[in-house]
């Protein structure tokens, strides 16, 4: 089965959307999630912190044996 990641993000330094704009965006994302679930897709919703606050997920050097 193919897997996809759909991400919604904000650009750091860009003006913060109004509460009304954010609510509209949340509603639109919720609509897409419900459509995907109705079609049988597995949907996960989560939140990341600011880029400077989240841990790195990149490759790491192997520990010596």
Describe the protein in words.
With 65 residues, this protein is mostly helical. The chain contains one helix and no strands. It has one helix at residues 19-38. The protein starts with 18 loop residues before the first helix and ends in a 27-residue tail after the last helix. The relative contact order is 0.10. The mean pLDDT is 78.
- Strand elements, count: 0
Instruction: Determine the number of helices (DSSP H or I, runs of at least 4 residues).
Output: 1
Structural class: mainly alpha
Beta-strand percent range: under 5%
Largest sheet: none
Q: Which properties best describe this structure?
A:
65 residues, mainly alpha
In short:
This protein is mostly helical. It contains 1 helix and no strands.
Please render the helix and strand layout as text.
Elements: H1 19-38
